Amino acid sequence: MMRTYTLKYVELAEQHAEKMAKRWAMDVQNNARTPTYKNLNEQKIIFQCVQFYRNFSKMFVHEKITEEVQKYFRIYATECYALGIPMAEMVYALILMRRHIWLYAEFQMIFSSLINQQQALDTLNRTILLFDYASYDVTREYQELAKRDKLESIRLLDILESNVVEIASNWAATVRKDKQTVFYHGIPKDKLIPQAIKFYSRLRTLLFDPERFEKGREFFRQYAETCRQQGIPLHEAIYALNVMRRQMWLHGEFQRTFVNALAHQQAVDSLMRIILLMDYAAYDITHYYQERMLLED
């Protein structure tokens, strides 16, 4: 059974959840350690924090963490993952939630005047322990989600690599007749296909290698150099690369796996990972062309 002072502590967490959550949201959206939160919908993250505080009493009531609370932690981790919040920021946001409980005036009053030193110590220790459990469970779930997404993304890459010649041939045929890539029309198909095969074959490294950003920068500068040597203007070089991505997605087996075999968030994550890569590619290619133009001037 909860002691009277603990009950009061829990009641305050529930009654003042929204006020504390608003202060937490202001903090987390302006904190240097949680930059991702700055671009998230304020009402959405306030609601998430309110739910956490309202579940706080369920954590306090029992000596051990219940299955219901653990289920909530998994939901919390899934929500953060879906919002694109990095794991380190998610954990620090939890730390800030705990801090905003202690900073709230009503709680300060409890600790300063309504309970003795031992009671305060017991309550603080219990709060810290609960947030330790929360950090453990949410990071474990987050890592499982990330691992699952990576495995599903690898499935798509397996399909790509098994059909690489066909997809590269489709890309070459497309850019040789597309009105947006007129400079490609005169390049023989057998010279274009190896360029696409090289991109598709390197995609696994460009997406998952620990040094993928450095390797990606090097790869796309080489791509830009090849395009420039062929006399292809910058806008067509970038457009042709986007067509490579499009031809990959249009392949029948790729589409079937994407639509039928992947969970919604896994599908979205796979798409966003590739889109982000292409955004970096556009920057690196443009940068290379600009450098060469300045040297020529």
Instruction: Count the DSSP helices.
Output: 13
Number of domains: 2
Percent of sequence in beta strands = under 5%
Overall pLDDT metric: 81
Summing up helix and strand content along with how strands pair, one would put the structural category as mainly alpha
Q: Give the helices and strands as they follow along the chain.
A: HHHHHHHHHHHHH
- What do we call the CATH homologous superfamily of the largest domain? Globins
Name the overall outline. Answer: elongated
At CATH level 2, the architecture of the largest domain is Orthogonal Bundle
Level-1 CATH class name of the largest domain: Mainly Alpha
Q: Could you tell me the radius of gyration in angstroms?
A: 26 Å
The largest sheet, given as strand count, sense and whether it forms a barrel, is:
none
The poorly predicted ranges are none
Please tally the β strands and state the result: 0
The CATH topology of the largest domain corresponds to Globin-like
Word description of this protein:
The structure is a single chain. The protein has 297 residues and is mainly alpha-helical. It folds into 2 domains: 4-148, Globins (Globin-like, Orthogonal Bundle), CATH 1.10.490.10; 163-296, Globin-like. Helices cover 82% and strands 0% of the residues. The protein contains 13 helices and no strands. It has helices spanning 4-15, 17-28, 42-61, 67-82, 87-103, 105-114, 117-162, 164-175, 189-208, 212-229, 234-250, 252-261, 264-296. α2 packs across α5, α7 (117-162) runs antiparallel to α12 and α7 (117-162) packs across α13 (264-296). The longest helix is centred in the middle third of the chain and has 46 residues, at 117-162. The N and C termini lie far apart (81 Å).
